[in-house]
Amino acid sequence: MSEYDPSVRIIGCGNLLMGDDGVGVRVVEALEKMGDSLPKGIDILDAGVCGLDILNLLEGVDKVIIVDSVVGIGTAKKGSILRFDLEDLLSKANEHVGIFSAHDFGISDILIIAKHVQNLPKIVIFGIEIGEIQQDISMDLSPEVLAAVDRVIPYIVEEIDHALKI
A single Gene Ontology molecular function, please (predicted)? Predict the structure, then answer.
């Protein structure tokens, strides 16, 4: 028997009770339903609104793909899919990306901390623009954000394939 050792980890972030903010979790649910049609050697995790606990999830793999909601990124329309590398988030030229999540700690804030306290794998972030933080409790995604769930899957699969070929 061999030990399972994933080389790619996909992390979905979000709060399912806050409408569109739950989009990252919805994406990992969709990926899990794909089952055997996804390549071997990947780990799919629902991180919820884990905050700094995500630091532990960045260890033990060659590549991490994070999916989360984004709010107010430039002129992106609701449901837009934005791709960031770690360097994109850490660049002074992209300070506006600090508004990167509806959670207490945004992914960009957490990755800045991570860069200083641990060795990091290759990191890619897919942010789905939600337009605004929803104040009412709802488990429903808006039509634009729901459509983005299906549209982001091929981009994630492409990232997985690229990582596994290296």
Answer: peptidase activity
pLDDT above 70 for 100: no
Q: In which region does residue 87 sit, left (phi positive, over 0), alpha (psi from -120 to 50) or beta (all else)?
A: alpha
pLDDT for 40 beyond 90: no
Query: Which domains are seen in the chain, by residue range?
Result: 8-165 (3.40.50.1450)
Give this prediction's pTM: 0.84
Q: Are 46 and 74 in contact (CB under 8 A)?
A: no
> Residue 56 corresponds to which tokens in the numbers above?
């532990």
Q: Which helix (H) or strand (E) holds 130?
A: none
Alpha-carbon span 2 to 127, nearest angstrom: 35
Which residues, listed in sequence order, are joined to residue 44 by a DSSP beta bridge? 10
